[in-house]
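Page header: ASSEMBLY MODEL / two components / 512 residues total.
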Amino acid sequence: MTGLQRGGAAIVGAAESDLGLVGDGFNVIDLMAQGISRAVEDAGLKLRDIDGLLCATTQSRTSGLNLSEYLGISPRFVDTTILGGSSFMFHVSHALAALQLGLCEVAVIAYGSTQRSVGRQQASVREINPYETPYRPFLPSTAYALAASRHMHEFGTTREQLAEVAVAARQWALLNPAAWEKKPLTIPEVLGARMVSYPFTVRDICLVTDGGGAIVLTTPERAKSLKKPPVYVLGCGAAITHANISSMPDLTVTGALESGRQAYAMAGLKPADIDVVELYDAFTINPILCLEDLGFCAKGEGGSFVEGGRIAPGGELPVNTNGGGLSYCHPGMYGLFLLIEAVRQLRGECGARQVAGAQTAIAHGNGGVLSSQSTVILGNSATL
Amino acid sequence: MTETQSPLAIYQAHLDKGELAYQWSPEAGRAVFYPRLVCPYSGSTALEWRVASGLGTVHATTVTHPFQRGEPYNVALVDCDEGFRLMSRVEDIDSMAVTIGMRVRFRVHKPDGEEPAYPVFIPAEGAP
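Prediction written out in full:
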């Protein structure tokens, strides 16, 4: 048993900061604070209600301090765990634990990045690894390309199947007014785009944008009296398998297998029970790996699973309904945006891209080079 | 006991002699790479240094294209016959012709200037 209680916390506020390309002079604390301000407003709470702060960014070494000062808050619970793009799913389980134990009553999880404005090199400084750096891997692309090469070799996955993931994401993005990309995309356009690291062209790779946001969590009791319908945390799971791609135990099996198993067990749900699927799509191989590891199809069948628009609007399984990191936004560590979209879907706020009658959602984060995986299963009040 | 030489320094000294070194964990009964002070499989700190035969098999491969200028280049993961994996590249062959399962042989690459030597691989046709 994990000790975490199914439905022991609810997400009651969710908001993005400004996205895309923010103006000169904005920094990550500005964006995190803006996201928190909007998320707290969305919840019907005030900044002074926050007594738990969880945040991660690559651009502020002590973001917990900077953000507290900026907002004029003095949280009694703080967690700045940083494990890459999945950090925020880790934060959800940590917030759940803190709320359950009474370490705080209103917790916010925040993220911000100005990587498009300041450039990737400055936003995320590369660490030297004497065993990898000499080969000039263009990270993270080269690492994910190595994993993709293995999937193609073992299971016959094709570049066209990878491209299907990008095309489906674009179709969802066209239904999302907040999405960065505004034009349709075809499989030949993905295949014919500039090659970055074979088999990936630039269209197999997530966007580089600015952005941030926040979600607000509280106890189920307090959630009931707030502005929006609560979205309950039904299940959490996490797994770390490696840091560098050369140490990944099996290039075709991610820690999502383990994190998913934990989350499903806690939620008492199985893949067939999930209405909306939000998967970290830093590269087109990621959703394929995670659809397999999270049990939506068998290992090796992810490529054929995504064919024919199955994960696109109108398809059998709604995946990455905001347009994903591939077409909506990707400010470096994208995991928080999966949670925001899952919350909005479960509240029925998604307009043209709304999945009708959605009651359960999975938000799965990936960090590093397939290194950290963390799964959160959410549900509306009907699922309690 | 205080360690006098870092794992990296020992590894590098072997490379300077033309050898690809790795560690062996008697307690785990398996090879360890990259070199370190603690065995990740057993927790033991009793790691032995060994020199690899230099033969291996390509486990994964990609060709990375520089954003601005320069030729595309190979980046590969190589499984050495002794049971450890490392990142490297395969040279003396078109980078797109490097295939998974290809047998390869180690050689030392000595960059110009200050950069330390590092292992690369070349096709090892006929190697068992």
